[in-house]
Amino acid sequence: AASLAGVAAAQRAGDSDNLDDAIGRVLVGHALILGWGGIPVIWSGDEIAMTNDQNWDSLPEHAQDNRWANRPALDWEKVASLRDDASTPGARVYAGLKAAVRARQGLPHLHASVKAEPLPTSSPGVLGVLRRHPMGPMVGLYNMTEHERFVPGWWLREQGLNPYAVHDHLIQAPSPLTEFEDLRLSAYQSMWLTADSYPAGPPA
Fold first, then answer.
1. How many angstroms separate the CA atoms of 10 and 31, rounded?
2. Of 152, 172, 122, 184, whose CA–CA distance to 194 is shortest?
3. How far apart are the C-alpha atoms of 56 and 54, rounded to whole Å?
4. Average pLDDT taken over every residue of the chain
5. How many Å separate Cα 185 from the centre of its chain?
6. What gap in Å lies between CA 9 and CA 131, rounded to an integer?
7. Averaged pLDDT for residues 135-141
8. pTM beyond 0.85, yes or no
9. Which of 51, 60, 82, 170 would staple 8 via disulfide (CB 3.0–4.6 Å)?
């Protein structure tokens, strides 16, 4: 996933801005999968932003099957170093994914019995997903672009949520509004929104 999202290319180029975007693409992809419902799958190594194995064909038994490029052996040194530098791509992806998994554990709205309904948001590049749960609606917002985007408060009201009283479970905090009553999403940001009277996820 990290190679597909551009992490490896940005690292080779030494391009910090593109690296930030690439990490954002990894995290928004995982958030969408985790927020869709059902049983999400995380491929071994994706949780620490491992990139493709450039020497996948060095083993004779793998040489005829290029899918091994996407199956690198888990880098245990990288795993052990996650706490040493929180700014590395591996540490950032791991922290973001861990937070999303923890938030998912505390949201009955993501039970497989609750249907995911894709919705247009009026904001280009932002996918909306509504889940109608007996405890109240949950709205997932996913900015799939490298640009800041805005979702109007009236749109959130149409989905059954008060824009002044929503809780974003991915950051475990209320979702702030702009002076124009819009939700601001930074590049590749995701939001899982419910009414703020609903309790936050499980303790850390």
1. 22
2. 172
3. 6
4. 89
5. 13
6. 36
7. 96
8. yes
9. 51
